[in-house]
Amino acid sequence: MHKRTKSNIAVMLVLALCLSAILAGCGHEPDKPKPTKNVVLISVCSVRADHMSCYGYRRQTTPRLAEFARQCVVYDNAFTQWPKTTPAFCAIMSAKYAHNNGVLRATHGPRLADEHVTLAEVMADAGYQTAAFLSSPALAAHSNIAQGFQNVDEVFVGPRRAVLPTIRAIEWLRKRDPKKPFFIWAHYNNAHYPYRASGIPNPDMFVEDQFYDASRHVRALKDPRAHLKADVPRDHPCVMEILRPDIGAIHTWAVLDERPEELDFYIARYDAGIYSADASIGRLLDELRTLGLLDNTIVALVGDHGESLGDHNYYFEHGRFPYDATAHVPLMIRQPRGAGARHVSTQVAAFDLAPTLLEMTGLTPPEDWDARSLGRLDKDTPGDNLVFTEAGYQLDYMLAVHDSEWKLIDVPNALDRQMMRHQEYELYRWRDDPGETRELSAAHPDQVARLAAILDEWAAPWRAEVYANWTRNQTTIPTETSRQLESLGYVGSNSSEDEEGDDGGD
Ligand SMILES: [Zn+2]
To answer: Is the pLDDT reported for residue 160 higher than 70?
Structure first.
């Protein structure tokens, strides 16, 4: 009986193959098989790759992700396309650079226009159930980033937001239709300043450990009226961000009252925030295993940007510069059963994740996407992979490019140069000097010329127009979101009150 069934199946398979060959011969494409693999996208805000133990950090900040990473393709050198939450995620979800999708700079109501086809839209069109669990007001509805998600759960308020993306995702997974594949996005804001490290029993777990140096001090500005002295027009779209006093001092919104001027206290708390994200993500991975989903689910983790912890005299923020303290992000992808797990040292763009996930599920990316599947790295020469990053708050903002060895930053704006090295171009050998401590443009003018030509060629078709039109895609932020952002000092307010006891949002 069993044997006979098998032979029947074999006959049917042969018939099916013949039929599809006949259809192909007639010019009819047989229907593509429907995708069946689930996709879970996990994202973390403000998490530097080099502060995760799974990327070699000295503190055990990510015990759960270390275990997960052993089953992943881990991209050791992934860089964001814009080191600020909203533009970074709009680039990832639309698979387009900010200059192309219109979501530039900071939080002044940038809106991803409907015309851009997002990863979630492609998957929803292919029959996926889609749901997003987002814990940052920078990803609120006004940004329109959740296009294509049939269920959007915004968990912005209160200390429980450290664990809520996991709790809500688990609830949703248990209720979903098991006959259809799913795509979910869970975003964790746990590491964002003001570094409360909520969601874990001991936020001070790394304070005064063996790596702690209590002698390092930095100025902390508690006065909400403190700001950088600079001549910026009041109607500049990012006047608030430009004047934020985060150069040479800890800005108002990040100050911790317990030890306000002790540099390592902030870093220890920041590291505990990463640990908190790791714990929460670990619970979600446990649930995927318990539900028996891991054998048929692709799980990816990506960061939007890192955090500057005093690097380049820039304290506890992100978005101002394209230095690797904020540009280098975690990126890892687990295929079912951990297939192909390895480390990839080639430099890659974080937004290449979207077409990579589509390729893995058998779907075709839209033709107008800028990003390309990382599957191509197996065929191309790795050194040829150029990674571009846009950054800054000025109308004439910065551009950067990484090749396999060098990185060039193009700094068009005079005020930006004053906060940096007073140069039009900065050159680093990023693989040997990941902290970008040795600026090499004088010693290697040939590399500056070569990479500047690459940046010019890349930006020539759009740069002048984009710099001149900052108002594109601005939208009105709803009152409640505006209040949450404003409480953190955004949207043109100088208030420093953080009444909800929330982590930051941007
Ligand atoms: Zn972020």
So the answer is: yes
Torsion over CA: 199, 202, 204, 207 (sign): negative
Residue 311's SS3 state is helix
pTM for this model (two decimals): 0.89
Q: What share of the chain is helix, strand, coil (3-state, %, to 5)?
A: 35, 15, 45
pLDDT in tens, 161-184: 899 999 999 999 999 999 999 999
Å from CA of 140 to ligand 1 middle:
13
Distance 32 CA to ligand 1 centre (A): 37
Of 413, 382, 400, 414, residue with least CA distance to 459: 400
pLDDT tens, position by position, 362-404: 999 999 999 999 998 877 565 679 999 999 999 999 999 999 9
Separation CA 333–CA 335 (nearest Å)? 6
Residue 305 alpha carbon to ligand 1 centre in Å: 6
Helix axes 353-361, 85-94, angle to 10 degrees: 30
Q: Report whether 323 contacts 306 (CB < 8 A).
A: no
Query: In this structure, what token pair is assigned to residue 502?
Result: 């929330």
Residue 506 Cα to ligand 1 middle (Å): 6
Show the domains of the chain with their CATH numbers. Answer: 38-486 (3.40.720.10)
Angstrom CA distances, 298 to 72, 188, 216, stand at: 10, 19, 43
- Cβ 256 vs Cβ 266: under 8 Å: yes
401 alpha carbon – ligand 1 mean position (Å): 21
